[in-house]
Amino acid sequence: MTVVELLERKRDGGTLSDEEIRWLITSYTADEVPDYQMSAMLMAIFLNGLTGDELAVWAESMLHSGDTLDFSDIPMTKVDKHSTGGVGDKLSIALAPMVAACGLAVPMMSGRGLGHTGGTLDKLEAIPGFRTQVDPSEFHHLLKTIGMVMGGQTETLVPADRRLYALRDVTGTVPSVPLISSSIMSKKLAEDIDALVLDVKVGKGAFMQDEEQARLLAETMVGIGTRHDTKVMALLTAMDEPLGTAVGNANETAECIEMLKGDAPPDATEVTYRLGEEMLVLGGVAADNAEARTMLEATITSGSALEKFEEVIVAQDGDPRVLEDLSLLPQAPEFVELEAPRDGYITECHARRIGVAGVQLGGGRLRKEDEVDPAVGIWVFAKEGERIERGQPLARIGWREGAKLGAAMEILEDAWTIGDEPPEPKPLIIGEVR
After folding, report:
1. pLDDT tens digits along 149-160
2. What per-residue confidence (pLDDT) applies to 175?
3. pLDDT at 331
4. What pLDDT, on a 0 to 100 scale, did the predictor assign at position 101?
């Protein structure tokens, strides 16, 4: 078989055999298939999809493209959470220590920014010294002793996904149900977890823009989990506007630290608690959501979640002083405010445009090899339904380079819509899939 033959068949809407898929993933992982050919395959899949059988083999091949973890000697129940990606979606950084403080083990393997959405690893690395690359033996040790790890994929753990993830980011092939679901589930199943809670974003700032598409993605991932005897459920959550107020890397990390102290925007806080409730119930440490909510709230009032996060920061070589002094996080050298052009109500605070503007500032990657600037970012001051007056700031922008600021401001000027009447309120939690 040849890659060109497989490309032509998938381009024309045909299907690939189990053997062909395994060969393609293995060959790409071994550098025998170049990026430009795999980019073409990703686009063909983006346009024509994968059948259920193809997807099962694609995900299985990615899962077994390298090492997998074995936590069978750790007595605690292992539960993780994953988001399909949103703007201002920093929830894992606060959620993981809250859940770990309740007695579950959280082996959180995260990713970097993808398209217009941020990545947990980029945000964590805003903490001075924080090391997200953790080899399998250390990952195991930290999970066993602390009950929580926050790291990325190593060279040998699901290497096919690590490479495809970076390639999708720069080839316009991110919003694809088979590519998203196989990417997420191959990483999560490699963690040897007992249960997984998925946060499937729906709306203008999500890869899945409508509920039907998001539900299909959720059902696909729950189905992959079921085939691997792993308990999986998904919440469908709103992503028309950014979560919280911070969009960036250092500023989102700061907002999570504030959440662990009980002071964070209500929308980000509510979604964090709902995800945590599901993790505790699936993990068997809470009988129902009400009991789980009480347990999670106790980790904030007692300070145990903040202490757990401090343990992780120290173990992964970060500077724990940031928990008391947020100025130790990277700071943008310059700031400018975007002002409202008229009085009225915010009828739209467009998450995708704000996310794209953040990437233009340098907070994300336009090319595979780009470095992320953790200091730049956007603070959203006006969200949907709020009354605004002319000249009142809609957002504050932290910037470093004038050309990048100009590109970002051009986008931000169209991110807010102001009307004469307030819009109808929208739910944060849209639905669930089990």
Report:
1. 999 878 788 899
2. 83
3. 98
4. 98
Helix (H) / strand (E) containing 340? none
What is the set of active-site residues?
82, 161, 168, 183, 187
* Helix 18-29 vs helix 159-169: crossing angle, to nearest 10: 80
Query: Looking at residue 156, what is its pLDDT?
Result: 86
| Residues in Cβ contact with 61 at an 8 Å cutoff, skipping those fewer than 6 apart | 21, 22, 24, 25, 26, 160
CATH topology of domain 3-49: 1.20.970
How is domain 79-326 classified at the CATH fold level? Pyrimidine Nucleoside Phosphorylase; Chain A, domain 2 (3.40.1030)
* Distance (Å, whole) CA 293 – CA 95: 12
Q: Cα(224)–Cα(425) distance, rounded to whole angstroms?
A: 34
Q: Where in the chain is the domain with CATH 3.90.1170.30?
A: 331-419
Q: How far is CA 347 from its chain centroid?
A: 26
Structure-block tokens of residue 85: 């990606």
Contact 322, 123 (CB under 8 A): no
The DSSP output letter for 423 is: P
Q: For residue 311, which amino acid is it?
A: E
**The pairing of beta strand 195-202 with beta strand 79-83:** parallel
Global pTM reads 0.90
Query: Beta-carbon neighbour count of residue 422 at 10 Å?
Result: 14
Closest residue by Cα to residue 125 from 86, 96, 89, 151: 151
Q: Where in the chain is the domain with CATH 3.40.1030.10?
A: 79-326
Domain with CATH 1.20.970.10 in the chain: 3-49
- Does domain 331-419 fall into CATH 3.90.1170.30? yes
How far is the C-alpha of 294 from the C-alpha of 291, rounded, in Å? 5
pLDDT score for 366:
78
**What pLDDT was estimated at residue 368?**
66
The segments of the chain whose pLDDT lies below 70 read 368
Strand (E) or helix (H) holding 400: none
**In angstroms, how far is CA 278 from the centroid of its own chain?**
17
406 burial (CB, 10 Å; 0-12 / 13-18 / 19+) is: exposed
